[in-house]
What does this fold into?
Amino acid sequence: MTAILPFLTPNALLELPIIAFSAGVMMKTFTGSQIENHPFVIFMTSGNYRRMLTALYYVIQGSEDQKEYRRQAVNYGFIVGSFVVGAVVSALLMHFIHIKSIWLITISLITIMVYYSSEVKRLGLKETNL
It folds into this structure.
C-alpha cells in the first residue's frame, strides 16, 4: 500500500491514512511476537528499550538468575539495535533517493512478512509463536 506514495502528489490527508493503515497491518501481523518467551513490539521500541535497561540493571545489580537476565538484555539489545539501524538506513535512503526509498522499505517488510508467515505455517504455529 505504501508503495504507491511516490506516484501521488504530496498530500498529508492522503499519505497519513495510507501509512497508518500499513503500520496497522504490520502490527497486527506481528502481534504476540516473542524471542525466547520474551514479548516485544515491532514498531514502538520504547517498551523494548525499557525491558533491555531493566534486564541490564538486574545484571549489574547481581540479582538471582544472572544467565536469564543477560540473555534477556542481549535479546532486547538486538531488537533496539535493529530498530535504530533501520531508522538510520531509512533516513539515509530518504536523503539519497527521496520518496522512492519507501519502495525499498516496503519490499523489505513484505519479504519479512512472507518469510514469517511461511515459517508459522511450516512449523504449525498458527496459535502460538515462533
